[in-house]
Write a structure and sequence with these properties.
Largest sheet: none
Number of helices: 19
Oligomer: single chain
Radius of gyration: 22 Å
Distance between the termini: 59 Å
Helix content: 55-70%
């Protein structure tokens, strides 16, 4: 038992420390971009009716996330004021829980302690988590990761034990997740595909999960109308295939590789090709041997990515934060299997692992530092305007010397109104 506790502690501690090392600038990052729109909500709430109205209101992009967006800002701003540090602490603590859950899920699916150890490391090292770990508003993805991993872990516990408590817990977390992020609606597909591939006797028992998802989609389409134009317009066309291919390639290519590592972009492209061939070959080979767990990991990527595929004009790197969990599990499992074979397999697996970490970790840390420095400029501008307004109330304030990123992250987002100016 002691050895198991120590191993579990290591599975949690090392990825969490890596998370802190890579994304520590995120803890010091100030508000920016759409943060200010949500920070301004509290000033408009004077009673319970205002609160319920604020929580029920969808975003301009056509989403409804009362727990992870409005509720998150209202609660922390009420408790701590307009201070970003508590927001980031909550994000990091949630991510630490995600890393532990990912390790537990991977160990259970693969039966490998090595894969369970590597999966959270490969996930947190992926530079597609930069925005999630530095921008307060992206907390909905961190919290949705917790929801998806928790409900899937409960599903596995229920399959293993037939304990009704896990089944009811899975349903409770699943229903709660609809108030966090729309991606939660794909959980029934995750559960049914896993059951179909790896636990066939439980497949029919996963079908009732589709009912809440279908109800949510109908209500969402009837009550919250998607924008008819702009980046959030939905395009149900063959362009979704191209978008999927773009995201698949992007998952393996670090963000701004040359800027943060001085490596040429071709290195990222070559890495993408090598990783894709290696992992897909592994999945096909294992499927031929009737081990469908790697196939499920590929399905995780596709299923969790599916809700954003119609957003043809809004291809964004942090949309990969949750789909790339599947790739992290697949790569960890492939490494664990290779490590049990000949020295040639071990050498290739170690080289690919080192290559991925050496190109991805500097990009992740560099991106976090870039967002931190960007936010400091925003903070300096907002505090200067607030101070000047206090000294000269009612006077017009002229702003000069503002560059494009600073303007986009503050002035265009009405940052000053969130602080009463």
């Amino acid at each position: 038992m002691n050895a198991r506790i120590i191993r579990t502690a290591a599975y949690w501690t090392i990825p969490s420390l890596l998370c802190l090392i890579l994304y520590w600038p995120g803890l010091l990052t100030w508000f920016q971009d759409d943060d200010f729109a949500f920070l301004g909500i509290l000033a408009r709430i004077h009673n319970w009716h205002d609160l319920l109205g604020a929580l029920a209101q969808p975003t301009p992009g056509g989403s409804w996330r009362p727990f992870s967006d409005r509720g998150y800002y209202l609660l922390l701003q009420t408790l701590f004021g307009a201070r970003p540090l508590p927001f980031h602490i909550v994000c990091f603590l949630t991510q630490f829980a995600n890393l532990l859950l990912l390790s537990a899920v991977t160990r259970r699916l693969t039966g490998s302690a090595t894969a369970g150890f590597l999966a959270p490391i490969l996930w947190i090292a992926n530079s597609k988590l930069i925005i999630v770990m530095t921008w307060c508003l992206a907390y909905d993805y961190t919290l949705c990761g917790f929801i998806l991993l928790t409900e899937f872990w409960l599903l596995l516990r229920w399959i293993d034990s037939s304990d009704r408590r896990y089944y009811l817990g899975m349903w409770a977390v699943f229903l709660l997740g609809f108030g966090v992020l729309e991606t939660n609606l794909v959980f029934p597909l995750l559960a049914s595909v896993y059951a179909l591939l790896c636990a066939r006797s439980h497949f029919r028992k996963t079908l009732p999960l589709f009912v809440p998802s279908m109800v949510f989609v109908v209500l969402h389409m009837s009550l919250i109308h998607a924008p008819a134009a702009g980046p959030y317009r939905l395009h149900w066309s063959g362009a979704m295939i191209k978008t999927f291919a773009h995201y698949w390639a992007w998952d393996f290519e670090p963000v701004n590789l040359t800027a943060f590592t001085h490596l040429p972009e071709i290195v990222g492209v070559l890495g993408m090709v090598v990783f894709s061939v290696a992992l897909l070959s592994f999945a096909v080979h294992e499927a031929y041997r009737r081990n469908l767990v790697p196939v499920f990991f590929v399905c995780w990527f596709a299923i969790v990515l599916a809700p954003v595929l119609p957003l043809r004009d809004n291809i964004t790197d942090f949309y990969l934060a949750l789909p790339c969990i599947g790739i992290a599990m697949l790569a960890a499992y492939a490494f664990a299997r290779a490590w049990k074979k000949s020295n040639l397999y071990k050498s290739v697996a170690a080289a690919l692992l080192a290559f991925f970490l050496l190109e991805s970790m500097p990009a992740a840390n560099g991106g976090a530092e870039w967002y931190h420095q960007r936010s400091l400029k925003v903070e300096a501008l907002v505090r200067a305007v607030v101070s000047e307004h206090a000294l000269n109330p009612g006077k017009t304030i002229l702003l000069t010397g503002i560059d494009g990123p600073q303007f986009a992250a503050s002035v265009s987002q009405h940052a000053f109104s969130a602080f009463g100016v």
